[in-house]
Known about the structure:
The complex is a heterodimer of chains A (about 150) and B (about 200). Chain A is an alpha+beta fold and about 150 residues long. Helices cover about 15% and strands about 45% of the residues of chain A. The longest helix of chain B is centred in the N-terminal third of the chain and has 21 residues, at about 1-20. Chains A and B meet through strand 6, strand 7 and strand 10 of A and helix 2 and strand 7 of B.
Amino acid sequence: MLPNLKNSLFALFLAFGAAGSAMADSLEVLVDAGWARASIGTSRPAAAYITFRNTGGKAVTLTGLTTAVAKRAEVHLTQTDDAGVSTMSPAGDIALPPGEDVTFQPGGLHIMLMGLNAPLKEGERFELTLEYDDGGSKTVEVNVLGVAARGPEN
Amino acid sequence: MTYGAAIIGLPALSLGVGWWQVDGPGADEPAGTRPGPLTSMDFQLTDHQGNAVGPGSLADRASLVFFGFTFCPDVCPTTLSDISGWLDDLEQDAERLNVVFITVDPERDTVAAMAEYLGYFHPAIRGWTGTPDQIARTAQDFRVTYEKVATKNGDYTMNHTSGVFLFDRAGQFVSTIDYHEPREFAVPKIRRALNGAEGGTT
């Protein structure tokens, strides 16, 4: 009985150890504070932007976003074709390749915040939780800038 | 003999002119997406203060016109932000410019909604809306496309032509400025349209 217990404990130990190292992939994705534009009323969707730096050696995928300020947070992509027509569509899961930056910015990838629970006011901050395919997650601060903000510097 | 020459010559000439305008040096926009002159347009809309407006409202001044919708989270605030920057750079010259935002989403962008939204941006920017038919006619006049796209939860977004159209004081179309264009190029373009001679050239 004792050897079996020891083996089981050992196996359990290994399993936890393995799980621990899998989550380490997303731990190597660095994210600075994000920025968002102040909202105009609460019925209009707002947009937030972040830069991901995958400093690790393995690909990581962003699979989910949650925040208390909105009922739904999704990544969307703006594209503009040669005829000057802009379209916006859900971008699905976002691949974060090893050793690369993925930057969300106006005119491209952005986090669309839908069903705002409260207005986003300039000068305030809110938290956004990023969920990854390896089971890891990270909560970052997002700074609310002006309604016409173009980037994190303004 | 002359008929033969005409039969070959005329089509050849029109092909040549056609090429010039569409693909050659006479074209700077993809074919079919340049608005015609404001003077050839015939739409009627309502501005964000409830006044009836149309192409005549833009007469005698250079104009910046763009299409969008207030429920747009990314492209439209970005464009409005760029325009505000250009207007700041133009300083007093900005007062000589018409700046108009026309909605492609008249269902949500009522006069009141436009007024509320524009209150957050540069005061020179005016908003125009109307009935769906009036908007459709206006888009046709400007050769702009737009389309409603359903999103989850019963919401919708709009795909739309998003560049900023620049017209000179005679109402002639000058060029499109899109939001990738750096301020150092956009502002001089606008200045040239402002200062161009009456009945100016492109």
